[in-house]
Task: inverse folding
């Protein structure tokens, strides 16, 4: 008599699905760094989400000091990112630098209470927070990569980015819940945010170990140029950096994507915060699987696939078809783009960098991609203003596939070099 | 390792104690820290008494900031006794404006886990006659002198091209039909007679002229703040001056009071100016040395009113437009005034 072993079949299926338990192999150090990022992101996003409300209704100010800060901001933090990485390499104190960066941001939360409506004080507080954020990025990524064997870099960055995205989603919810329980008590939001920031900092200081991956002194001193630790010279890094920077230059910012959706009448202006949440949720869900896939298959292929997902976003934005069904397609593709590119790019760069150059290399990469994105926004805005929204979209939709093909060629070559080296 | 765990538990405990004790010691049933008045209070420390009935004009409607259960409601203060008793209405607003029997009250509400913003249109008995949903944090509102239109400015996030910037949206509404007339960004703007259009356009701070059709507003583009003069029916506006923010037309429509940003040894802030429209001659109201971030309201053709933050919320100050007479406290514990003559 034929019997079907349900439980056996199910267990076999489960084993098949769960076999690549990549996230289980991720080092405790990475989980702790992820936890620090999660807590810090809740802390910073809860403040960011209530700042307009606090400044405009709580203090009766106009939030245009952000215009002042953002005017200086993109260029400045881009350079601070690089500087943080360089300092981390030179001093070999990635953990200390990351801690200082997290600490500055945490303290800035409580400073909000002290500056009150003082405009100069507010600008200084925002600037300090952003410098702290820029400063910690490269040392933190260096710590992640130094705690992880080369084969697991994709998963490690995937886990970190997922935790980061989770924090970014929980922050605004925490702030709203607090303000519902205690209306108009912005001060309470700052105090809770500060406490979460300090707990995040404690996780980093107490549980994250300084990585042991240091090459021998003889090896490093022999290959040092006078500019060591400032501009790494690995060919693989430069190829990754050029591809990453070029792709960033043809990437439309989220804000523009949502604005186009809004102008096509597909979403109401008031739902824009919700669009950020949906994109972030997709990112959160896909970051770990994409990282694992990148490790098992090929990182550059996942990275390229992610940009193809972005190309789908452009195609949908340009498509003559109308309908609210397009909105979820755009949000899922945008989330998938982030999941397949952000952590994977850091993993690709880490794989080609010696341990002593991780900070400066990752810092340089962060600087290149953020300058690329800034350039993309300026170009997109300029074409939009000079011609039209459709012209700007069309230009980016033509340029993106071309840059994707060029990057695929460059990255596959770089990959071959790493394999043969 | 157990030492580290213990240290972490200690940090966690300190952090939680900090939050709990802060919440405990600053808790008060009404919004805003209610410090008990001590000896020799300054004028803003005395709590104005209440009027039992609505006064007759001239009066000012304000957002009353008396720290009790009426906090945030519209208060009506006779102009003859600005620091005297006020009548408290049933309507609560974050910002308000009122003219010729039509008022607009900008409010906050909760919509699930999100904050929602609404413009409530009310009549002379403070009954809400219509609602217009808003897309961001309400900042400025002005009703036209004839009462039939209003201009509302809100702050929105994630809508500008510096990724993290804030942007403004200024919408004109029809107070009679409770509908939207249009977003100022859809108006045709000219500068020096030529079409002027940029993606980074931001409008804020509308002020209407007597007929309710002509208006002034601020237009920011490329870091410059322009004064534009607009025409509602023609859906058009033209640039008339630079470095003007939050204009406010005088009751006789001859002058515009506005704020101008400065950066100096004191830091950053705004000073008030008055522009004579016929001659374009400008006067700095230097008698006020503190930074004023407000769209002023004219008390009469020779005096402007604006808010300054205080330890208990905000007060309305008044200053002569001669530029030399020192400002004085006018309405204590009040915000967002609208004068009804």
Result:
């Amino acid at each position: 008599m034929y019997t079907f072993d349900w439980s056996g079949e199910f267990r076999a299926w489960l084993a098949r699905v769960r076999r690549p338990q990549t996230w289980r192999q991720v080092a405790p150090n990475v989980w702790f760094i992820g936890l620090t990022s999660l807590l810090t992101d809740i802390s910073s996003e809860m403040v960011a989400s209530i700042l307009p409300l606090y400044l405009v209704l709580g203090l009766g100010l106009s939030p245009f000091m952000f215009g002042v800060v953002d005017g200086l901001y993109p260029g400045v933090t881009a350079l601070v990112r690089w500087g943080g990485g360089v300092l981390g390499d030179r001093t070999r104190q990635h953990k200390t630098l990351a801690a200082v960066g997290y600490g500055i941001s945490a303290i800035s939360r409580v400073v909000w209470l002290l500056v009150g409506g003082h405009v100069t004080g507010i600008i200084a507080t925002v600037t300090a927070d952003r410098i702290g954020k820029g400063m910690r990025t490269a040392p933190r990524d260096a710590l992640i990569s130094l705690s992880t064997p080369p084969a697991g870099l994709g998963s490690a960055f995937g886990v970190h980015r997922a935790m980061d995205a989770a924090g970014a989603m929980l922050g605004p919810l925490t702030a709203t819940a607090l303000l519902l329980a205690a209306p108009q008590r912005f001060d309470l939001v700052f105090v809770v945010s500060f406490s979460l920031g300090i707990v995040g900092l404690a996780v980093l200081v107490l549980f994250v170990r300084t990585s042991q991956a240091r090459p021998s002194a003889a090896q490093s001193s022999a290959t040092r140029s006078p500019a060591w630790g400032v501009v790494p010279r690995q060919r693989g890094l430069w190829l990754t950096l050029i591809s990453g920077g070029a792709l960033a230059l043809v990437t439309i910012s989220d804000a523009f994507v949502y604005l186009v959706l809004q102008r096509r009448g597909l979403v109401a202006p008031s739902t824009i915060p919700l669009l950020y949440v949906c994109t972030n949720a997709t990112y959160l869900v896909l970051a770990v699987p994409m990282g694992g896939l990148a490790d098992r298959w090929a990182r550059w292929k996942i990275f390229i696939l992610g940009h193809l997902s972005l190309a789908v976003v452009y195609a949908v934005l340009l498509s003559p078809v109308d309908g609210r069904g397009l909105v979820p397609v755009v949000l899922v593709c945008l989330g998938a783009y982030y999941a397949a590119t952000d952590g994977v790019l850091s993993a690709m760069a880490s794989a080609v960098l010696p341990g002593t150059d991780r900070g400066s290399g990752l810092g340089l990469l962060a600087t290149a991609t953020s300058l690329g994105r800034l350039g993309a926004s300026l170009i997109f805005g300029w074409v939009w203003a000079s011609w039209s929204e459709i012209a700007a979209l069309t230009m980016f939709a033509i340029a993106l596939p071309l840059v994707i093909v060029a990057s695929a060629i460059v990255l596959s070559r770089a990959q071959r070099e790493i394999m043969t080296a | 390792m157990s030492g580290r765990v213990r240290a972490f538990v200690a940090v966690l405990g300190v952090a939680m104690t900090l939050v709990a004790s802060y919440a405990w010691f600053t808790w008060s049933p009404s919004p805003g820290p209610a410090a008990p008045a001590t000896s020799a209070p300054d004028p803003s420390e005395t709590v104005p008494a209440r009027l039992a009935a609505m006064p007759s004009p001239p009066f000012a409607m304000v957002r009353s900031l008396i720290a009790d259960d009426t906090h945030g409601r519209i208060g009506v203060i006779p102009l003859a006794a600005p620091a005297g008793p006020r009548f408290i209405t049933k309507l609560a607003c974050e910002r308000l404006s009122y003219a010729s029997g039509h008022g607009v009250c900008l409010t906050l509400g909760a919509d699930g886990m999100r904050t929602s913003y609404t413009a409530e249109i009310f009549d002379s008995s403070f009954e809400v006659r219509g609602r217009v949903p808003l897309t961001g944090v309400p900042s400025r509102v002005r009703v036209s002198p004839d009462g039939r239109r209003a201009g509302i400015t809100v702050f929105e996030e994630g809508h500008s091209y510096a990724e993290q910037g804030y942007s403004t949206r200024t919408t004109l509404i029809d107070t009679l039909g409770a509908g939207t007339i249009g977003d100022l960004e859809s108006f045709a703007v000219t500068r020096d007679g030529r079409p002027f259009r940029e993606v980074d356009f931001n409008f804020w701070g509308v002020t209407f002229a007597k007929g309710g059709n002509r208006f002034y507003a601020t237009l920011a583009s490329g870091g410059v703040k322009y004064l534009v003069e607009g025409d509602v029916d023609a859906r058009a506006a033209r640039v008339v001056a630079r470095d003007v923010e939050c204009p406010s037309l005088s009751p006789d429509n001859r002058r515009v009071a506005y704020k101008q940003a400065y950066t100096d040894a004191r830091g950053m802030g705004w000073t008030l100016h008055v522009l004579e429209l016929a001659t374009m001659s400008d006067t700095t109201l230097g008698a006020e040395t503190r930074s004023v971030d407000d769209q002023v309201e004219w008390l009469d053709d020779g005096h402007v009113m604006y808010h300054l933050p205080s330890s208990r919320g905000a007060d309305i100050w008044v200053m002569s437009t001669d530029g030399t007479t020192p400002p004085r406290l006018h309405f204590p514990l009040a915000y967002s005034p609208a004068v009804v003559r």
The first strand of chain B starts at residue 59 and ends at 64. Residues 30-41, 159-164 of chain B have pLDDT under 50 and may be disordered.
